[in-house]
Structures are given as C-alpha cells and as structure tokens.
Amino acid sequence: MCGIVGYVGSQSALEVVLAGLRRLEYRGYDSAGVAVLADGGIAAAKKSGKLVNLEKALVDQPLPAGAAGIGHTRWATHGGPTDANAHPHLDNAGRVAVVHNGIIENFAELRAELAARGHVLGSETDTEVVAHLLAEECSGGADLAAAMRLVCRRLNGAFTLVAVHADAPDVVVGARRDSPLVVGVGEGEAFLASDVAAFIAHTRSAIELGQDQVVEVRRDGGAGGAGGVGVVVTDFDGRPADVRHFRVDWDAAAAEKGGHASFMHKEIAEQPRAVADTLLGRIGADGELLLDELRIPAAELREVDKVVVVACGTAFHAGLIAKYAIEHWTRIPCEVEPASEFRHRDPILDARTLVVAVSQSGETMDTLMALRHAREQGSRVLAICNTNGSTIPRESDAVLYTHAGPEVAVASTKAFLTQLVACYLVALYLGQVRGTKWGDEIQGVVRDLAGIAGAVERVLADMEPVRALARSLAGAGTVLFLGRHVGYPVALEGALKLKELAYMHAEGFAAGELKHGPIALVEEGLPVVVVVPSPRGRSVLHDKIVSNIQEIRARGARTIVIAEEGDETVLPCADHVVWVPVTPTLLQPLVTTVPLQVFACELAVARGNEVDQPRNLAKSVTVE
Ligand code: F6R
C-alpha cells in the first residue's frame, strides 16, 4: 500500500520520480505528490485522486527538474484522500519533505508533543509528525540520515520513510520497519522505491534492505561509492548493516502493458508462460524433484506432523486448494487459515509444524505477522512468494519463488496460478522426502503439471463466448459460484474476482452446502456459475454436482457450467457451458480458474470499471 520513490542522480529527478510513480500506482491511487530539491529549497506538488491529477497540475504549475526528489502515491489510512493529506509532508519551514508507507501508531502523542512545542500540523495524517521531528533533529545538528535514525527509534508501527532536506541537495534518505523499501543502484544515480518496478527502466542492480535499517544515498561521495553514488546502510543505532545485493531478473518490458487493454488482461494472457517458468529446473537428471531453495533439511521435513497454510485473499484460496494435494499426497494433516485470523486464536504450533506462508507481494502485513508468530512458537516457515527482496521470504526459514514476473494489476491472476504450482511442488517434495509418493508417481504429476501451460493456452484461445456472456450480465445484481472438492476454492476465487473488479454481490459456496441455506437465494434468472469436477475423478462428486445444478435450474437459475471437455452429462442442465481441457482431478483448478478471471475482467469493463485499479483496494496490503 502506498508507492514510494526517491531519486538522486544526473537525470531530472521530477521525471524519474513521476515515471516511478506511474509504475507503482497499483499500490495506491487515492492521491499523489512529489518534492524536488532545487535552487536551495524544496519544491513540492500534491493532488488528491489518481496520479494523472498531479500530472495535470504540474503542466499548469511546473516544478524545477532537480537532481534529487521523492514521490508518493497513496492508499489512505489516516485522513481522507484530500490534497492536504497527500504526501509529501513538509515541516513548517519547508526544509524537510517526507513520504511514508505504513502506519505510525503513536502519532497522536507525537503530534501533541510537537504542537506543545509550537509546530503547526496541517494534515490529518500520521506521517506529518515525521517531517517535523526530522526538522527538529536536523536543526539540532544531525545530518538527515542521523536524524532519521533518531526519529525512527521514537516511532511505533510499520513504516517506510523516504526524506530529503533542502540543505543536502544530493542526498535522499530512507528507512524501513515492516514495510518494503529497495535500493536501485545505477551509473551515477540511485533509487529508493517500494518495489523494483519503479526503477527497472534504469537499473537491474538492487539492494534489499533489512528490518529497522536506514539508507542514505548520496551523489558523488559516501561510502561504497557506485559510479559516483554512495549507498550507506545502517541500523537505527548507526551501526553498519549487512545488505543483500541482487539482480532483478525481469526487464522493463515486463512491467508494461505491451499492447494489452489493461495489465490484468496482459497478466491473464501471460499465465501459460508463468506456469511453465515456475516449473523450470525442478526435476534433476535422476528424475528427483529439486527444490534447492527450500533450505529446510529433509530430516526435518520427515518429522513434520502438521502443515498450516497462512495467506490472504486470493493467496488464501491457493492455500485451500493446496490442502487437498498436501493431504492426499503426504497424508499429513493440513490446516489453512486466513493470515489475519491466525495468530489471534492462539494456534497450536510446535517445532514439528511446517507453516507455509503464501504471498505474491511478500509484504502482506497479516501474513508477515502470522509467520512471525509461527516462528516464535518454534515452527519452521516456508514462504511461497513472487517478489525477490521482499520481507516475507527474508523472514522465513525457506522460500520457493514463483516465477510469475511482475504482477501489476491489483487483482491477482497469474500469481494465483503459479502459487498453485508451487503448492503442488511443495506437496510432492514432502511426499518425496517422506516416502509417501514413489518417484515415478512424482514424475507423473510433474509431467501433468508441465502439460498445464498448454491447457491454459487452449482455454485462453476460446474465451470470446465467456466475454460475451459476461457483457450480457453487466446488469445483474448477484452472481453465485458453486464448486466441490478443489472446485470449491475455485468458486470462492471466482466470487472474489467479481466482487473486487465488478463491485457486484458475488458469493462462492460448496455446492453440497446449497441445500443448507443458500438455495433460498436462487430466483428466476439468477446467474449461477458451477465448477464441475471431472467425471473421471471422484465421480460420485461429479454426479452430485450435476444434481445440484438441476436443483437450482428447477428454481429458475441461469446456469453457467464449467466442465471438462467431453462431459456431456452437463448439457441438459446447463444454459451455458465453458469447456476446459481434461486434467487430473487435483490440478483442475489451474484450468477452471482462468475462465472466471476472464469473466470478472470483462464484466468489470462492461460496467465501466477500471480493472487494474479497483476502488478502495491496493496491491500489497502492508497494514493489518
Ligand atoms: C485478490 C488479491 C488479494 C491478494 C491478497 C494477498 O485478487 O489480489 O486478495 O491475493 O491481498 O496478497 P499477497 O499475495 O501479496 O500476500
């Protein structure tokens, strides 16, 4: 939530910061602002609403280019999305400017303290106190980095802060606690940003910051100079800190729309590739599954007696599907819980519990807090994550990276499919080390997984009828989704996508639960999407769901059935059929989810909504 950019170098700081904000706007789009250091002072502009409002304002009232600057795109927490609450925030003398992501929990007491000392605070935000505190420390003789360290020690909560001072025109300082910040190092220039997308057009060389660290980037000087730019990282007490350098393995084109109408459209289309990439290099010459990054010794995995998956939203749905595979292939009990609920119920955890934290961004605060709790109880934590350099993998015992590439649209699509693939790999690996699956069985499933990319491609090639259907439902008030077995979480995911994109009432149910209440919702013309299990798998479930479809149709529902190619038993009870290729039962979600993504995307467009940036949402939810 909230996108932050800082820049120092030889290019126009204003242009670089604005371009970075464009790439980070998916993180929050309630307001945007920039500040540049120029002519011995700070020039700032900020506007409520999307970035385009700020860009228009800058055409009317241009700012100097500057060699250093900061910018922010906001997802409001404290104070509504007004111009006054937009970042950057400046101190009363206008010498310090700061942008912030996160929540400063003790801001009320700091604000009262500052007011008592004569400071005038003009916004309702928690952030503004930081600008005033930094200004006080600097006027007491500290340089900006030292001031940042002193101030951070006084803050409670989660924060990424990036600040500039008019007296230090070649310096940008950042700090982080429980909120993301990465450093990009180019030739004679450096970047601070919430994620690498902000600077990938300039450099792929990045530094991951640790918890409670302050970074100073300084042009022409500083320790460890890199092409005329020094990067110095310390902890909050000023001690030099260890940092990890990494190279971003995707390029700027990956973060562009590439001719698609929206990022979501593009990311749906990228799924065959994302699935294939996540499988790359996983099978060794001897046919063994290789998960080298896993780093948890096989002996320990053999001792695991419970798996707990924690995740939020779409990633939680991936966890729900993982449970079927983990329990079936390993016979280890698996619990799945929304990360936001997990630690508050005092879950039973010990050294034999393997906690799997699934997160695209690697920054979701609820998931981070859940994994910290699990580690405190002595459990091992394995992260499944799409974002190198993010907090969740860094704080986990092991990580399996999905290789979806950057996911920019707020609604998760390709990350979900790759999370599923990663979950299947973890389940198979557990089966391998524990001996509950034979090698040839594992290779068989991996072969099936390898075939999924082609199957998804086939689904995508035939989506026009789904789009037309979605357009025809633009006026509907409610859509229900039903599924059974692994199709049940798919139904939940279909409903979530529709809610967040089309702003429609949508609910997912286990089809067997229908008769226990939800069937009362069914009335003439109600669209109901049903994900039908393969007739070749648990055929008893298949037959039962066909009966469920008949029950709702008899009550007037308009039935939209997603069924396996060749399953003609659904024809008599389906108003519309979406065929998906034949896949093994447990892998079916990899194909059945795709039409639901397309359906939600098209319906949202038909209703005039912006699919990449749905209202009230943000990608990367870094507050609890
Ligand atoms: C829905 C969606 C969200 C995320 C959730 C977790 O389309 O994108 O529900 O799945 O906020 O995010 P990550 O995976 O980044 O932890």
UniProtKB/TrEMBL annotation:
Residues 2-220 form the Glutamine amidotransferase type-2 domain. One of its GO terms (biological process) is fructose 6-phosphate metabolic process. This is Glutamine--fructose-6-phosphate aminotransferase [isomerizing]. One of its GO terms (molecular function) is glutamine-fructose-6-phosphate transaminase (isomerizing) activity. Keywords: Aminotransferase, Cytoplasm, Glutamine amidotransferase, Repeat, Transferase. It is found in: Cytoplasm. PROSITE patterns: GATASE_TYPE_2, SIS. The active site is at 2 (nucleophile), 619 (for fru-6p isomerization activity). Residues 297-436, 469-614 form the SIS domain. Gene3D superfamilies: Glucose-6-phosphate isomerase like protein, domain 1, Glutamine Phosphoribosylpyrophosphate, subunit 1, domain 1. It catalyses: D-fructose 6-phosphate + L-glutamine = D-glucosamine 6-phosphate + L-glutamate. It comes from Streptomyces aurantiacus JA 4570. Catalyzes the first step in hexosamine metabolism, converting fructose-6P into glucosamine-6P using glutamine as a nitrogen source. InterPro entries: GATase_2_dom, GFAT, GFAT_N, GlmS/AgaS_SIS, GlmS/FrlB_SIS, Ntn_hydrolases_N, SIS_dom, SIS_dom_sf. GO terms for cellular component: cytosol. Homodimer. Its EC number is 2.6.1.16.
